[in-house]
Specification:
This protein is an all-alpha fold. Helices cover 79% and strands 0% of the residues. It has 8 helices and no strands. The protein has helices spanning 15-39, 45-67, 73-105, 115-142, 147-184, 191-222, 235-254, 258-274. Helix 1 (15-39) runs parallel beside helix 7 (235-254) and helix 3 (73-105) packs across helix 8. The longest helix has 38 residues, at 147-184.
Length: 275
């Protein structure tokens, strides 16, 4: 496939916008690394890796912007693939956080599935979605020497995004049901623990909505709804992807789950002392 003849973009990518988001994602990722190391909240490693994917992806967009109109496939594939799958890594940390909230509250009996299955089920769904999207983009571009090849790749990406939306939608439902049942049984949970966990559950809801909106817009993009209007206008990716995913990382900086780890560590110490 001749890179120089491949129409990577339906617009001229903005170098300024790419640089702005490189700086923003580097800044927020560095802050997350600092908090991760200081608090040892290791299950947020996936979110940090997602942050790396974001700013590296925008480096790819910046490189593409300097190549207009003679784009090469490498930077385009870099930015497309990394920006496409980064939210899946954010979702993995969100799934694991809910598992810890359930442990802190002792509220497994209020959850729809067993806590031990929570991370396994949703992270497996996340990995499946991640793999399908990556396979669709790489396969569609690398083997897509024809329009049909590229279109087939985009159909695979849509399947991966739909898988992500389904799992995330189910996750939001079961998390909300857990929250409802826990609040009804609030007399059985310490007030400080309930208030703390409600704060983190609210952060989960906000971040989940942001990721869901982003995924739905990306589905519409690859389905070419509106005669490919989304694909022909760069502002869509910045408003409905860049801004939303940056907001997810900022939410978890503002509401960082270090208290959950501290509570779990204290509980483990008490159990050991009681033996």
């Amino acid at each position: 496939m001749d890179d120089s003849n491949f129409n990577c973009y339906h617009y001229s990518p903005s170098l300024a916008a790419a640089i702005v988001f490189i700086v923003l994602f580097v800044a927020v990722t560095v802050l997350h690394i600092f908090r991760l190391l200081r608090t040892r909240t290791w299950y947020f490693t996936a979110l940090v890796v997602g942050g790396f994917f974001e700013w590296i992806g925008y480096i790819g967009r910046a490189i593409s912007a300097t190549q207009t109109p003679d784009w090469t496939l490498g930077p385009f594939l870099l930015q497309t693939l990394l920006l496409l799958v980064a939210p899946g890594l954010f979702a993995a940390s969100i799934y694991m956080q809910l598992g810890r909230i359930i442990r802190v509250t002792g509220g497994e009996k209020y959850f729809l599935v067993r806590r031990t299955w929570l991370t396994k089920v949703f992270v497996i769904g996340d990995v499946v979605s991640f793999g399908i999207q990556a396979a669709g983009k790489c396969g569609g571009l690398i083997s897509g020497q024809t329009i049909d090849g590229i279109n087939n790749g985009e159909k695979v990406i849509v399947i991966g995004l739909v898988v992500q939306i389904v799992f995330f939608g189910f996750f939001t439902v079961v998390a909300s049901l857990f929250n409802y049942r826990l609040r009804r049984a609030s007399k059985l949970v310490a007030v400080d623990v309930e208030n703390m966990c409600q704060k983190y559950l609210n952060a989960l809801y906000v971040s989940s909505i942001l990721i869901m909106v982003r995924s739905i817009v990306r589905v519409l993009e690859f389905l070419k709804v509106g005669d490919s209007y989304i694909m022909q206008n760069e502002w869509f990716i910045y408003v409905f992807d860049s801004v939303l995913m940056l907001a997810v990382m900022v939410v978890f900086l503002v509401v960082y789950p270090s208290d959950i780890r501290a509570k779990l560590r204290a509980s483990s110490t008490e159990e050991l002392e009681a033996r």
